[in-house]
Design a protein that fits this description.
The complex is a heterodimer of chains A (about 110) and B (about 110). By secondary structure, chain A is mainly beta. Chain A is built from no helices and eleven strands. In chain A, strands 2, 4, 5, 9, 10 and 11 form a six-stranded mixed beta sheet that branches. Chain A has a five-stranded antiparallel beta sheet with strand order 1-3-8-7-6, with no helix packed on it. In chain A, a hairpin with a 7-residue loop joins strand 9 and strand 10. The radius of gyration of chain A is 13 Å and the shape is globular. In chain B, strands 2, 4, 5, 6, 9, 10 and 11 form a seven-stranded mixed beta sheet that branches. The radius of gyration of chain B is 13 Å and the shape is globular. Chain B starts with a strand and ends with a strand. Classes of the chains: A mainly beta (about 110), B mainly beta (about 110). At the A-B interface, strand 5 and strand 10 of A face strand 4, strand 5 and strand 10 of B.
Chain lengths: ~110, ~110
């Protein structure tokens, strides 16, 4: 049972434009959400996170939005750069557990 | 470089065999996590160890087992291998357990079962 879903396997965006990656979850107990970025032949690396007490967290070009009522989060990258081309995973957990639940990933291609 | 090392990088074996994957966490990290990523699947959490003790268990098959040694490195043992066990296996480490501990991932071990 996939508790965290990324329904878009891939996304292509022009350099300089906004990239929006989406993630949906089913478990209302999740209280912490993360985005990881993965390049080929490397492990995922942490990008940005958000606690369920917030609805937005910003770090440079990256902003994560959380809509708890819709059980939806999104990652905005502005402006997109070719180096952002990677697979992006969203993940979620609840504080009483140590288990992270990952989505299936979205492959982002930023076209120069 | 995350500081987490995994060996081997690639492993090719036959059905029915047994393999051991090894992970060395970042210096100072006490928690080790194992994940499996099959084709078109997200990372599936298998198991977590904290300072030598099992802390959390996910969707780990009975044919799989893991342990964390006193020097904090961890091994994931996969036995009676099946074709469906072919996947990328990632190890991650973090400083503690619980709370909002960031996990640092190794480069993974690609297992191919023929």
């Amino acid at each position: 049972d996939q508790q965290v879903k990324q329904n878009s396997p891939s996304l292509s965006v022009q350099e300089g434009r906004i990239s929006i990656l989406n993630c949906d979850y089913t478990n209302s107990m999740f209280d912490y959400f993360l985005w990881y970025k993965k390049y080929p032949a490397e492990g995922p690396t942490f990008l940005i996170s958000i606690s369920s007490i917030k609805d937005k967290n910003e770090d440079g070009r990256f902003t994560v939005f959380l809509n708890k009522s819709a059980k939806h989060l999104s990652l905005h990258i502005v402006p997109s750069q070719p180096g952002d081309s990677a697979v992006y995973f969203c993940a979620a957990r609840w504080d009483t557990g140590n288990q992270f639940y990952f989505g299936t990933g979205t492959s982002l291609t930023v076209i120069p | 470089d995350s500081g987490v090392t995994q060996t081997p990088k690639h492993l090719i074996t036959a059905t029915g065999q047994r393999v051991t994957l090894r992970c060395s966490p970042r210096s100072g990290d006490l928690s080790v996590y194992w994940y499996q990523q099959s084709l078109d699947q997200g990372l599936q959490f298998l198991i977590q160890y904290y300072n030598g003790e099992e802390r959390a268990k996910g969707n780990i098959l009975e044919r799989f087992s893991a342990q964390q040694f006193p020097d904090l490195h961890s091994e994931l043992n996969l036995s009676s291998l099946e074709l469906g066990d072919s996947a990328l296996y990632f190890c991650a480490s973090s400083t503690g357990t619980g709370g909002f501990n960031e996990q640092f991932f190794g480069p993974g071990t690609r297992l191919t079962v023929l």
